[in-house]
Amino acid sequence: MKLRNRSLLKNQSYINGNFTDASSGKTFSVVNPYDGNLITQVSNCDRTDTKKAILAAQYALDGWKKLTGIERGRILRRWYELQIEHLEDLAILLTAEQGKPLVESRGEILYGASFVEWFAEEAKRVYGDIIPAHQQDIRISVIKQPVGVVAAITPWNFPNAMITRKVAPALAAGCTMVLKAPKLTPLSALALAVLGEQAGIPSGVFNVITSDNASEIGNELTENPIVRKLSFTGSTPVGKHLIKKCADTVKKVSMELGGNAPFIVFSDADLDKAVEGVINSKFRNAGQTCVCSNRIFVQEEVYDVFNSKLAAAIKKLRLGNGLDEQVHIGPLVEEKAVKFVEDLVADAKDHGAQILTGGKRYNLHEDSLIYEPTLLTDATQNMRIFREEIFGPVAPIYEFRNEEEVIKMANDTPYGLACYFYGKDFAQITRVSEALEYGMVGINTGKISTTLAPFGGIKESGFGREGSKYGIDEYLEIKYLCFGDIN
Ligand code: SIN
Q: Does the N terminus or the C terminus of the chain have fewer Cβ atoms within 10 A?
């Protein structure tokens, strides 16, 4: 891996402003999913290390929260600038550990940095309220204060942006943080810590725990009463478990969980644009995002023509090493992920699905983790693929007759994160936008992610919003001050 600045490649956790070995001395391997080569060994922290990080965050809290929003914002702004300065190295590191194509990694670093830029500004806009009182001698005001020490657990599919999306609003609000970095992709997190230190984030304000034992670290983060909030991005089953664990100490929680996004193509849609929308929303990160379209519903009048257009577009996608500039689809993150996709496709075939293109592992070399971008037609509701989050480059197509039927099918899932639809009839667009039970709706677009808009789901996709003017609220407590005897 050719980095211009080798100091960004760290292999120790970051606790209280120091890169340190695990107290046990143990390490675990981080490998490149494209070729299985070892990148480095990283400190394998346990509960003891996590406790130390929590205490460091507690100790640092008072000084950090007393800074003005402008002062905290200046440090965050510097952090943002450093991320932009080191964009290329951060992108290379991300592709090496995660596998996504370099062009997507660059996009992720810019996306990630944009949260830091945004919340550097928001730090100075934590406004309170004055409320007209109920008595003449009373005055009521409302202030907002940082929640305190926050824990964050982030996923491997966005090793950079899912971190900045949590840490930037937390720090802007005056909280301190202990981050559990993803086991498969801890290097991007550590590189962020290097740049955070250079930007002037004081010791203990941002700590990064690396470990291959998620449950041990999760137990400490959720059981320790010093931690006042947990922000988690990951699967719904793990999210449910963490919510239960946080109940004992009544922590605030934000959960960005799994999705099962419908993508609806009505017969009056611009089909070429809808195909582009599927390519954007389905094949980003080889299908490994929570907002990837998971079930594609196409109205019967345009079913065949849409499928052949989509198959042609899919065949143009180039597969290979994410570090190669020409590549659109890199490897899945690990063997388990490929097996899961293989099983879903086998089940769909057993239940009558047809494969128009793809449908197997790409035999680049033995043990290749690349799965061919796949188009499955004749998909039906009795297949596993209808209910389960695919997390791979497989696009199942379901045929539908009318609006009422497709809304019913689209909402027939416990998930409610993102959804998409294409059409031109304004009245239908309005009705469908209102009827879809999702936190985010893409209308004639397959790209919805931006710092400026509230990202988050409903139902079993979680609660809380990240980014936008709402994102900082997740890290603030509302306090009401009642001033009496004002005569
Ligand atoms: C995710 O997959 O969880 C995040 C995707 C995004 O922010 O666009």
A: C
